[in-house]
Amino acid sequence: MHKISAILLCILLASSCKSDKVINKQDVAILDAKVTDVPFVWESANLYFLLTDRFNNGDKSNDISYNRNKETAVLRGFEGGDLKGITQKIEENYFTNLGVNAIWMSPIVEQIHGSTDEGTGNTYGFHGYWTKDWTNIDANLGTKEDLKNLVEAAHKKGIRILLDAVINHIGPVTDQDPVWPNDWVRTQPQCTYDNFENTATCTLVKNLPDVKTESNKDVELPPHLIAKWKAEGRYEQELAELDAFFKKTGHPRAPRFYIMKWLSDYITDFGIDGYRVDTVKHAETYVWQEFKEVCDIAFAEFKQNNPTKILDNNNFYLVGEVYGYGISSGKAYDFPDKTVNYFNNAFNSLINFEFKWNAAQKSYEEQFNRYNTILSKELNNYGILNYLTSHDDGQPFDKNREKPYEVATRLLLSPGTSQIYYGDETARDLTIEGTVGDATLRSFMNWEEIPQKQDLLIHWQKLGQFRRNHPSVGAGQHKMISEKPYVFSRTYLKGDFNDAIIIGLDLPKGKQTINVSTVFKDGTQVKDFYSKQIIEVKNGTITIEADTNIILIEKLK
User: What is the rounded distance in angstroms from the CA atom of residue 130 to the CA atom of residue 341?
Assistant: First the structure.
């Protein structure tokens, strides 16, 4: 893949969206600006989700590890992306320019060493969801020192880091990866999903052993882990840490608590800011309440031990993947035989699987107003994570990349947390020839196409930066000002911080007079962040010469 240098990227940014005009030096400085006086709000975060192996290759020496050298089916092997590659893009301001203030990486723990062939061709655990050892980072992705450097680099830019937690299953059994003891996992029955039990105490798919998360029985360490740690010279240390954890917490030495201890180490050792939790509904509800408690304690310990590394007073963040959950359900998720509230003493937020369908069926106002109402009432003090593309959703909103500008506008201006999937901002191809299943969604980041995608990228950057700069976009109160042209306000007030903005969408080009009296007083100077025009409010209105169909109005500081 091409390496786009920071210098070249700056050159690419010197163009305005859907226009041949060149952005002046002042505008480039604004694109590079770091916002330091705006509070970070998870409910309004601009989160970037990437597959660690598919984003950027910063260290080619680790491209083949554990003798993973079999030929694989298309896009089902390791492609070279790693932690150093992500750090490189953080330091080059790729994420800062995109307005990203949180990054979620697919799991980085050590994966099974062997490959599987379940009807899709040889496949390695490049995606991170086939755990072999929670205590170690997969050598294909880097080292613990690489993770330390990544978190520190991100925090210097005001970017939070989410890792991906898998508790309910391990990786498939292969010749190199034996099955875990039967007091740790079950290998049958396979889930039928017709009630809660047949969703939680069963294997998701064939050859994916399910951790007995319901068990409170003390279990010994798996023999293969003991042998592995002894060979690596760290058995005594790992054993001592486990003894200390169980003594401190009083938890039984049950499978789930081993895993929670291992995952919490990434909080105390590296200061990560949150976890995206995989396959939530495939474990008992109390598991996530226990996990939250373990994470909160670990985060408090990190802050106590590292007072100079504390970013703010936000709590540790947990967002859950409850497959099929949608914002319309409020706090409820309905199984055929029971209703579960996964927010209760567990998750701050849930992934909103409904968002893409709402985007396809509803106008901006219908969707924005409805989301505002639910988030203000049923989900008050909680959040949702909206997406339009993902790693395992075979029906994305814009699979053929025919509406990449609308994807940005709809996603980044909606109430709730936004999740950009890597390459959304550059219209990365989602229809790769020769792939089977979700592999087509997981191609390597299309860095080499950026010169041809610069207008689209800048559209994403402008919306993303505006969102990052204004918590009111995702977490504020929404109010329509006019239907035609479509103009609305968002306002956010918390403590001494007061944020208010006005957005116009689908505006006709040319001179426009916009009523801003509900937000800005006469005499106030405001700026359209999109075009960089500065206007004074007169008689409750602003008059703007629009050469695009969008305006992002903020008070001039």
Answer: 28
